[in-house]
Amino acid sequence: MINEALRASTLLALRSRGPLGPLGPVGAHGFASDASGHYLQAGQRVRTVRVPYEGRYRTYELFERYPEAVAKALPDNDTSFLVTGNASPGEVDSYPFTSRVGQYLTAVLVPENSFSDFDLELVDGKGRALAASRSDGRQGALGFLLVNLGGYIDFLQRPVAAGAQLALRVSPEAVCQFQPILLLGRRVCRL
Fold first, then answer.
1. What is the distance between the alpha carbons of residues 166 and 67, in angstroms, rounded to a whole number?
2. pLDDT digits (tens, 9 = 90+) for 140-168
3. pTM of the prediction?
């Protein structure tokens, strides 16, 4: 296992309501989730919730938390999900989804530690880039202190049309799963 390429956990969150909002894993909807992150009601998968509003109902997508393999394989993912997973150097992870309504899409990628650096890209159904975020985070030495330089969190926001088939691509620039140390000005990982 240690001989495998170094891996780092990533977090990918879509939509501003996020995991702590009323539609997320700790929200007020009351649905239980299975090991794959799907919400269940009476044993059936639930993707949306209807909420009364001014004498009518509005339908909202629930904010699911998926493991990496599940999110990559979903044929019907929407724009409201979070992914936890790993990425190896040279790997590009792609998470396809469809926008149910016209909206501003917000995507945020947060690395597990400051020695891991990722890039985030939004592409259309034909693979054309629509938006990208390329963080430039790194650590440097100031005397005997380690200091963070640049930014580590990738963020993008873009209007998307109803029915748009899209994907988010995540690619690692530097990955460190283990305790990072600075050695002669270079990033290394202590195993």
1. 19
2. 666 667 666 667 788 899 999 999 999 99
3. 0.74
